[in-house]
Design a protein that fits this description.
about 300 residues; alpha/beta; Rossmann fold; 2 domains; binds S-adenosylmethionine
């Protein structure tokens, strides 16, 4: 899929209002670049993660929209007080994920979250729950819609007593679970790099979790009241029987990373193993499902 990366040069004093408007216009997240802090962040990064080319010299807000919506969004942004310039650039999914391993100062997600790309790298006077993520190689900076959909679901459901984050990547969802008050968290991933990055990020956020390099099908722990799984549609379907074995009866599953046209198939596979579909969210052609295991299910 092709995306439009829209960069808005702003008067710093108007930045917050413009950022709010960008979220209202459907941006999943907004990167805020303040030239001073951006330069110091760049200096701390390993060379392979630094942005190429000139460093931004202006205060900027950056967000992504599907190409079809970009022109209308640009027109609306140009009208706002404090907007000095608006431009857009087409990017592919892969390029978007790569550029987004770094570069933002803070990222607002849903109603309750703010992600900062380094330890202590920002204030949380927005009243939002801060998540600190070191720029790294593991998936999960918070910028991808699939991650955002899970964070939005987590705002709406009761705090889990015992949670599993399957496919933890950077650990972002395990951190979020801990920040909401879950005290018993297991996180797992097949990728050894993700496991290391997740451990570091969890520690940086002061969250305790058991992080394992394992496929959820091999886990021996059981009785999870919540499972989060932001993995692809096919993988969720394959893992569905394991999720239903690992979950406590009545337990919630938030399944994300599902491309919209495969959502029905995944719903069917979850129903087969005892889940009912309670809610569904969609963003930019990605779907996340909230499913609940039947009370009588063992
Ligand atoms: C899309 S990323 C999600 C990262 C993070 N949880 C987030 O929401 O941003 C999916 C992760 O699942 C991992 N993964 C894929 N298949 C897996 C499996 N069968 N068991 C465990 N982890 C798996 C990948 O290595 C990757 O880190």
């Amino acid at each position: 899929m092709e995306w439009a990366k829209i960069t808005v040069d702003v008067e710093p004093a108007q930045s917050e209002a413009i950022l709010g408007r960008m979220l209202e216009l459907g941006a999943g997240g907004v990167e805020e670049i303040d030239p001073g802090s951006f330069a110091s962040l760049q200096a701390e990064l390993p060379s392979e993660l630094r942005l190429e080319g000139d460093l931004p010299s202006k205060h900027q807000l950056i967000a992504y929209w599907p190409v079809a919506k970009a022109e209308q969004v640009k027109l609306q942004l140009k009208e706002l007080p404090g907007v000095l310039g608006v431009r857009s650039q087409r990017v592919t999914d892969a390029k978007w994920l790569k550029t987004n391993t770094i570069g933002f100062k803070e990222l607002f997600i849903g109603n309750r979250w703010v992600v900062f790309p380094q330890k202590g790298g920002g204030r949380s006077d927005s009243g939002r729950i801060p998540i600190y993520l070191a720029p790294g190689q593991a998936f999960g900076t918070g910028l991808h819609p699939t991650t955002q959909l899970v964070l939005e679901f987590l705002e709406e459901i009761p705090v889990a007593e015992k949670a599993l984050d399957a496919g933890t990547g950077s650990g972002i969802l395990a951190i979020a679970l801990g920040k909401l008050g879950c005290a018993d968290i297991t996180a797992c991933d097949l990728d050894p790099v993700a496991v290391e990055v997740a451990k570091q990020n969890l520690e940086q956020n002061g969250i305790k979790a058991q992080v394992l390099q394992v496929d959820p099908r091999k886990l021996t722990r059981r009785g999870f009241s919540l499972i989060t799984a932001n993995i692809l549609a096919e993988v969720i379907s394959e893992l569905a029987p394991a999720f239903s074995r690992l979950a406590k009866p009545g337990g919630n599953l938030i399944a994300s990373g599902i491309i919209a046209h495969k959502a029905e198939e995944v719903e069917k596979d979850l129903r087969k193993v005892g889940y009912s579909i309670v809610d569904r969210k969609e963003k930019e052609n990605w779907v996340a499902l909230l499913a609940r295991l039947g009370e009588g299910h063992q």
